């Protein structure tokens, strides 16, 4: 029986995939796996039992990836599963920044008792006139799952679209409309675009990427859309740019006590992925990742360990080892097994940065003492025996 702890409500559509081998628990200390959305895990103490965390979503800045990797806890996310939900909200944000729909709706509600509202509104409406997106320049920073969809949507709206991503994957390049112009640096986007939409992860080198210096080179009256993370934008600099008119509107899905009080901000309460479809997609993918890992040691979509799609096990036993990516590990594992006469049917080893993962299929289940020997090898973080005899 595997124990699963949900740190946020996770869509039933995904949870119902869990078989009778799984039980949800209240106590995190009992869990082998955690399912999480936006809850922060930075302040949480985890137990030795925890093997995996699946983030039902894209951003993983709420999880201490390195600390968990050192403990042999594999962290997954669900790439692309909520991208369409975010893209649609970005389009809505772009429209709300271009046309004063909110002002117009407010006027209607303030004048709803006016019997002649159908006439008075024809005079009042000039206060809510806006601009069209067609023909304007849209710059998309970060062409991952969301950025590509936003760029293509901008193109479909008749915008001239520019995109920048120094690490653009082949998969995403193939999804990108050929009418989107790729530029070499974010600076090209800052200098020439009327609308700038940011879709990068929050990392040390992306933190504060929208700041005094980058906004200074932007066009006057630029519209900035941030559906990625609040700390990508420097709030003090944004306040200044909004009050000087450099930035006409700042549309964000990540308001805080400062930005929520600024004039010129259009803010949503982190609604990008809050659609039935995105929640279902993320939950289903996250649950599958956890089940594949717990039952077969398969790693797919990990953000702190290498992916390792070893498939199902045709042997009696599978040994999985999370370890540091340092020399001489494999020879020590194989020596420990050969010392007790265990033959290896299949061995796969993968690495990602400082961490590595080894899967060994054997026809015999190693004894506790062999297991202890492997666990004691310097650099080993977590060892599991998956027994397929039952
Ligand atoms: N508002 C919401 O509810 C949601 C927000 N997000 C946020 O959006 C971000 C992006 O999500 P996805 O597109 O799914 O992730 P993704 O991983 O598919 O794409 C991110 C892209 O940013 C690129 N990138 C990294 N550093 C860059 C830089 N300095 N300049 C330009 N490009 C850079 C990467 O190469 C990658 O292609 C997430 O990290 C998360 O913070 C994601 C989902 C929902
Ligand atoms: O689960 C959510 O609503 C958060 C979505 C998000 O921000 C992400 O996937 O990065």
Automatic annotation (TrEMBL):
<dbReference type="InterPro" id="IPR036291">
    <property type="entry name" value="NAD(P)-bd_dom_sf"/>
</dbReference>
<dbReference type="InterPro" id="IPR029752">
    <property type="entry name" value="D-isomer_DH_CS1"/>
</dbReference>
<feature type="domain" description="ACT">
    <location>
        <begin position="318"/>
        <end position="388"/>
    </location>
</feature>
<dbReference type="InterPro" id="IPR006139">
    <property type="entry name" value="D-isomer_2_OHA_DH_cat_dom"/>
</dbReference>
<dbReference type="Pfam" id="PF00389">
    <property type="entry name" value="2-Hacid_dh"/>
</dbReference>
<comment type="function">
    <text>Catalyzes the reversible oxidation of 3-phospho-D-glycerate to 3-phosphonooxypyruvate, the first step of the phosphorylated L-serine biosynthesis pathway. Also catalyzes the reversible oxidation of 2-hydroxyglutarate to 2-oxoglutarate.</text>
</comment>
<dbReference type="InterPro" id="IPR002912">
    <property type="entry name" value="ACT_dom"/>
</dbReference>
<dbReference type="GO" id="GO:0051287">
    <property type="term" value="F:NAD binding"/>
</dbReference>
<protein>
    <recommendedName>
        <fullName>D-3-phosphoglycerate dehydrogenase</fullName>
        <ecNumber>1.1.1.399</ecNumber>
        <ecNumber>1.1.1.95</ecNumber>
    </recommendedName>
</protein>
<dbReference type="GO" id="GO:0004617">
    <property type="term" value="F:phosphoglycerate dehydrogenase activity"/>
</dbReference>
<dbReference type="InterPro" id="IPR006140">
    <property type="entry name" value="D-isomer_DH_NAD-bd"/>
</dbReference>
<comment type="pathway">
    <text>Amino-acid biosynthesis; L-serine biosynthesis; L-serine from 3-phospho-D-glycerate: step 1/3.</text>
</comment>
<dbReference type="Pfam" id="PF02826">
    <property type="entry name" value="2-Hacid_dh_C"/>
</dbReference>
<keyword id="KW-0520">NAD</keyword>
<keyword id="KW-0560">Oxidoreductase</keyword>
<dbReference type="InterPro" id="IPR045865">
    <property type="entry name" value="ACT-like_dom_sf"/>
</dbReference>
<comment type="similarity">
    <text>Belongs to the D-isomer specific 2-hydroxyacid dehydrogenase family.</text>
</comment>
